[in-house]
Amino acid sequence: MEANVSRMEERSAREAAMKTVQISDIKNDESSGESINWRQQRMIQGWKFRCSTANGGIDMRDTGRILPTFAAVVVLLLAGQDLRGQRIEKPLPPTVTELERAQVIEIRNDAGVTILKGNFEAKGKSNEAERKAKLSGISGMGSAEIEISKKNGQVKDQELELELKRLLYDAPYKIFIDNKEVFAFSADHKGQANLKLSSKITK
Predict the structure, then answer these.
(1) Is 18 helix (H, G, I), strand (E, B) or coil?
(2) pLDDT of 29-75, one tens digit each?
(3) Strand, coil or helix: what is 41?
(4) Euclidean distance between CA atoms 83 and 60, whole angstroms
(5) What does the DSSP 8-state code read for residue 139?
(6) Which of 18-22, 85-89, 170-174 has the weakest average pLDDT?
(7) Span between the terminal Cα atoms of the chain, in Å
(8) Distance CA 78, CA 76 (A)
(9) Which one, of 29, 61, 24, lies nearest residue 42 by Cα?
(10) Residue 191 DSSP class
């Protein structure tokens, strides 16, 4: 019987102590200008955030590491978007007037050595002519295409397109057609070159 009374007294003492703590918390909250509900709301939000991070969420402390990594990935993707390199578009020299009869195209390096060479094959209709060539050699590879449009049997427009790759990075080269220099250019930083040379001829 005495043991039961002792337990009841201990329980009453604990309850009284808890009430004292609760009253103290309420006073502290009132003195700081915060309501009980606002304090509870902050505690719940903190608990939810900790739960989300524990279940695979993103810890705000990790954003300092995540953002630079993401930016680096974006830069690499943008840098690799144009795999063909920038296109060079220039007019044909005035001396180039008869691409319709072109037979051999060469790409020579700065020392004058032919590194790529190809022969044009004729295709086309009466008012349009198309000639294509595959280029191969000791360095690199590529293709060339000539397009010619005519009006009343006379040449109206001439166009030469080249796509070259596996060249030396940023190295200078020259285009020769039937042993005549046509255009000088440089490969890009990927060792590629995409050129379009066009000229309108009126007679």
Answers:
(1) helix
(2) 444 444 445 555 655 565 554 545 455 554 555 555 555 555 554 44
(3) helix
(4) 37
(5) S
(6) 18-22
(7) 128
(8) 5
(9) 29
(10) S
